[in-house]
Amino acid sequence: xxxxxxxxxxxxxxxxxxxxxxxxxxxxxxxxxxxxxxxxxxxxxxxxxxxxxxxxxxxxxxxxxxxxxxxxxxxxxxxxxxxxxxxxxxxxxxxxxxxxxxxxxxxxxxxxxxxxxxxxxxxxxxxxxxxxxxxxxxxxxxxxxxxxxxxxxxxxxxxxxxxxxxxxxxxxxxxxxxxxxxxxxxxxxxxxxxxxxxxxxxxxxxxxxxxxxxxxxxxxxxxxxxxxxxxxxxxxxxxxxxxxxxxxxxxxxxxxxxxxxxxxxxxxxxxxxxxxxxxxxx
Length: 282
Ligand SMILES: O=C(O)C(=O)C[C@]1(C(=O)O)C=C[C@@H](O)C=C1
What we know:
By secondary structure, this protein is α/β, with parallel strands linked by helices. It contains nine helices and 15 strands. The chain has three domains: 4-84 and 175-184, Periplasmic binding protein-like II (D-Maltodextrin-Binding Protein, domain 2); 87-166, D-Maltodextrin-Binding Protein, domain 2 (3-Layer(aba) Sandwich), CATH 3.40.190.10; 196-281, ACT domain (Alpha-Beta Plaits). Strands 1, 2, 3, 4, 5, 11, 12, 13, 14 and 15 form a ten-stranded mixed β-sheet that branches. It has a five-stranded mixed β-sheet with strand order 8-7-9-6-10. This is Prephenate dehydratase.
């Protein structure tokens, strides 16, 4: 039986693109929000959820990290790094007067990736946040009577029959988003191994101890474990209470990583393995 893969819909989002590339044979199931998609994976309604995790211009997708840590028991089983090209799309009826567009809509992350472009060309024009870039494209398709534009990808232009008013409107040419593939613990999803392996840990420090973060980092450094990311997010239990997400560029082994985890636990930290997986460039 084939895999059922959930993604942030509707069709032709960047998440959909990642799903199409990673799981060519799978049945793709759209969800209107990231939490709904993750809930479906937790409930076993789909085999895995693909969700955006981090963008090179805008940073982390907080809803994904927070929901992963606070609300679900899902594990990261893979990641995909996708090149993101944002375009300004309009209904063909409005192609002649797109410069006078009265509203620009898209996903908040996509609008933020094009902030300088919007500031230059559409100063004072309202922005409308939508649940995804493709939802914005669909909205523009459905309202030809309004002179509005969407920021979305070329897949969405094709899917919703829109035309390019301007291409590549993201502010920095290096624009990449990392998507995580999430599945229930013990639910094996085959993903071909790649050259790049990663381990993601969630670490909570013992409360109010001087040098605790330094001790955590030294548990990795003396083992020569190369960290590729350290990020803090609120515990949501009080001001100043944060947990850390740490990524290590390594395959899980029987000695080094378990040793580091044991050392952190001996220091009074709580450590949770979020996943040990391969990174795919697509
Ligand atoms: O709206 C989409 O197309 C999405 O897949 C979401 C999302 C995101 O949340 O970051 C994914 C990639 C881009 O960075 C912009 C938007």
